[in-house]
Amino acid sequence: MVDLPDQGRNNLPPLRLHVPEPRFRPGDTADFSNVDIDTVGRLPRPDVHVAPAQIHDHAYGLVRVLDLDGQASGGWNPNLSRDRLHAMLRYMMLVRAFDDRMFRAQRQGKTSFYMKSTGEEAVSIAATMALGRDDMCFPSYRQQGILIARDYPLIDMMNQIYSNRADPLKGRQLPIMYSAKDHGFFSISGNLATQYPQAVGWAMASASKGDNRISAVWCGEGSTAEGDFHSALTFAAVYNAPVIFNVVNNQWAISSFSGFAGGERTTFAARAIGYGVAGLRVDGNDALAVYAATQWAADRARTNGGPTLIEHFTYRAEGHSTSDDPSGYRAREEYAAWPLGDPVDRLHGHLKLLGDWDDAARDALRAQLETLVKDTQKAAEKNGILGHGMHQPFNSMFEDVFENMPHHLAEQRDQMIAEQRRKFGPDWEPN
Questions:
Q1: What letters, b where the CB count within 10 A reaches 16 and e where it falls short, cover 219-234?
Q2: Phi, psi (degrees; rounded to nearest 5) at 351
Q3: Which one of 67, 87, 327, 355 has the lowest number of neighbouring Cβ atoms within 10 Å?
Q4: What whole-number distance in Å separates Cα of residue 344 and Cα of residue 120?
Q5: pLDDT confidence tier of residue 7, bands split at 50, 70 and 90
Q6: Other beta carbons within 10 Å of 287
């Protein structure tokens, strides 16, 4: 065995690890002056078939259309019609009204759990509006805007949140874990990033069949540290799958900031570079930029240009969920100090500049949407809420798992029925 030279090693400092630490903690004053915000129009809109290596700047800069005064400009401006813009704002405001009402319902004990998307409405609404209605979406748990933008019935969403007798998922999923195949909305999984390889597989199947539908998938920046994320990127790159990867960088995972997922080192869009995939970093609070980037990525995927990874640079305004208290780990006024503003306010400001919209119209629309959500809630609660007994037949727990029920489940079901008849009499029947 040959000894390795160690001359001079005794003079080296001891090795140490770096533990990421957010810039602001409770009691601190948030100051985002260090955040580099690209000027509108600096990044050009490339051809949809550009080689990924030619747009590395787009993974480090910030695609923007709206300035903070509401003016739209630059090559990424999608030049949407007034009707389209009004529809986009209405959907975004509807998501916010829905979130506020369902959050309140959880606090009133009517459901066990809820997650708001306040501050991130553009990430789901604008992106969905840029996709085809028959494209398949693989969401994480903060993209309820996808369903709303596809006009999924609000009452069905509420019934699922209440897990009541009209719940389309029969009370088998955690509240807000929706599933709506007929609206191109794949079942939400609480196991983070599992939807990434599923979206790639769906896209590969679409391509194998010679279809023209693509898939889009969302996850938070924290989930990019999961192995599923990297497996999905590998498969998509190798097989040129028609899929859009959306990374919602809202600065915080459950209670850890983006540095624990690698955000201190580089952007999340830059992860595309190592896989040879097109990467875009987008102002996630600019609905027009989100729309334009998604439209570009969709056109690229639909014409065999391959996958795109889009990092939506945004901020989670509320807690991670109703089980979370963000005041325990971040500065109280962080969202108010966020330099990219509020997505609803920014789109509202753009419409005001166009001249056919004002604060009074916004307030009237907000009141209308709040009434709609409130009335829908009353209708949903007639089907039951948390604590009002069992809303689904007891024996339904054995159903819908296998096409043909295996013998061991049939035996368990029969044992359950026999036990209930022993307790409540021979005439008891499952219902």
A1: bbbbbbebebbbebbe
A2: -65, -35
A3: 355
A4: 9
A5: low
A6: 30
Nearest to 292 by CA among 306, 312, 318: 312
SS3 content of the chain, % helix, strand, coil (to 5): 45, 10, 50
Q: Which residues pair with 63 in a beta bridge?
A: 282
pLDDT tens column, 125-139: 999 999 999 999 999
Q: Contact at 8 Å (CB) between 282 and 62?
A: yes
In degrees and rounded to multiples of 5, residue 219 shows phi and psi of -155, 165
Bridge partners, residue 136, by sequence: 215
Q: Can you give the C-alpha Rg of the chain in angstroms?
A: 24
Amino acid (one-letter) located at 151: D
Asked whether the beta carbons of 384 and 406 are under 8 A apart, the reply is no
Q: Is 151 left (phi over 0), alpha (psi -120 to 50) or beta?
A: left
Does the pTM surpass 0.85? The reply is: yes
Q: What is the mean pLDDT of residues 137-166?
A: 97
Say which residues have a Cβ less than 8 Å from residue 330's Cβ, sequence separation at least 6: 22, 24, 25, 26, 252, 257
Place of tokens 């949903």: 380
pLDDT, tens digit (0-9, with 9 covering 90-100), for 341-350: 999 999 999 9
> Strands (DSSP E) along 182-300, which ranges?
215-220, 243-249, 278-283
Instruction: State the first-to-last Cα distance of the chain, in angstroms, to the nearest integer.
Output: 77
Phi, then psi, of 85 in degrees rounded to 5: -65, -40
Inter-residue contact 215 to 244 (CB < 8 Å): yes
- Which token pair is 306? 């391959």
The total number of residues shown for the chain amounts to 431
Residues in Cβ contact with 193 at an 8 Å cutoff, skipping those fewer than 6 apart? 219, 223, 224, 226, 227, 228, 229, 232
